[in-house]
Write a structure and sequence with these properties.
Distance between the termini: 37 Å
Strand content: 5-15%
Number of helices: 13
Order of helices and strands: HHHHHHHHEEHEHEHEHEEH
Structural class: alpha/beta
Radius of gyration: 22 Å
Strand order of the largest sheet: 5-4-3-6-7
Shape: globular
Largest sheet: 5 strands, mixed
Length: 327
């Protein structure tokens, strides 16, 4: 069904699609993507799903007919994200993006960089490290490879800066390649993988490692204070802890932008009763997982295997329930 959808979108350009000015198509794409962002990762009724996907397919076809390749690519990327976010199917999303690369890859369209990055993101969700490596090789050989000088900085927070500066050596650096490399790192910690080795110390001096977590279901929660999506999901973390804490479920928080002095107060103000690790104590692990400055969570089973990543709301509660029921 996915391949049928892809080819239907691609074919829409050749069946008498209406030609609209490029600027109108761009504005229309912005409206559609804003609508998708507002829906977030919620599952939606089938008729609403079909409506949105039909609008994106129609827009992609009209953009192709008008020669507006940028809007066409944007429509297909939005469709891929919808498959991943609303249907929890990154495999189908990656398939759409691969077809887009086959169609537009040799045209030198700058917007294709978002296709490479998004496909790497989907492959990271699937844990397909080898596929991301191959994708990086293809990107380097493509006409849109962007080896320009730039500086890249990551800041944990105003009080605890962590900065990584890329060298200003023209011909060696690429913003797109940096993003793809981040997803390469993330793919190594996808569902089913063992946690990498670490030793973390919380604000009270207690230490945690993968070995100390064996026999427990644990949520490793890397959070950024002030992040609206994370704050919105916090009540579900509390529900999971309240419901399953006595049965062996625990949470270990790692705050990336509040220093040790303020972390106790930040956790207390939010009613977080579980251990908290300052980001500076977990820098190596944060970089290894490819999540500097980003909210991320890893649900780990009793054998130390990652069984879920970035689960939110009812999806988190259901995943914890299932793991707690496993023997």
């Amino acid at each position: 069904r996915t391949r049928t959808l892809i080819f239907a979108m691609m074919a829409a350009a050749s069946i008498g699609a209406w030609s609209a000015p490029a600027q109108d198509l761009s504005a229309e794409l912005k409206v559609l993507t804003s609508r998708l962002e507002a829906l977030g990762n919620r599952a939606i009724p089938l008729d609403q799903w079909r409506e949105i996907m039909g609008q994106l397919a129609d827009l992609g076809g009209r953009a192709e007919q008008a020669g507006d390749h940028a809007s066409a690519v944007g429509a297909y990327v939005a469709s891929a994200r919808a498959w991943a976010d609303m249907r929890r199917n990154p495999r189908q999303a990656a398939m759409i993006l691969r077809e887009v690369r086959n169609r537009y890859g040799g045209k030198g369209i700058p917007e294709m960089r978002s296709v490479y990055v998004t496909e790497a993101e989907m492959l990271a969700k699937l844990g397909d490290t080898d596929a991301i490596r191959r994708l990086i090789v293809e990107f380097k050989a493509s006409p849109i490879f962007d080896p320009e000088p730039f500086a890249y900085s990551v800041h944990e927070g105003r009080d605890t800066p962590m900065t990584v500066r890329r060298p200003f050596a023209k011909g060696t650096d690429s913003v797109t390649l940096l993003a793809m490399t981040k997803y390469l790192d993330q793919s190594k910690a996808s569902s089913g993988a063992q946690l990498p080795d670490f030793m973390l110390s919380d604000v009270n001096g207690y230490q945690y490692s993968p070995g100390s977590m064996l026999g427990h279901v644990v949520l490793l929660d890397f959070w950024v204070a002030g992040s609206t999506p994370w704050e919105r999901n916090l009540p579900f973390l509390k529900q999971a802890r309240d419901k399953y804490g006595a049965q062996g479920f625990s949470i270990l928080g790692v705050c990336q932008n509040v220093d040790e002095t303020g972390l106790k107060a930040a956790a207390s103000d939010r009613g977080m009763s579980w251990p908290q690790v300052p980001g500076r104590n977990a820098r190596g692990l944060i970089m290894q997982l490819g999540i500097p400055g980003e909210n991320a969570s890893f649900l780990v089973d009793r054998q130390g295997r990652i069984r879920g990543r970035n689960l939110q709301g009812a999806y988190l509660l259901d995943a914890v329930r299932r793991l707690m029921a496993e023997q």
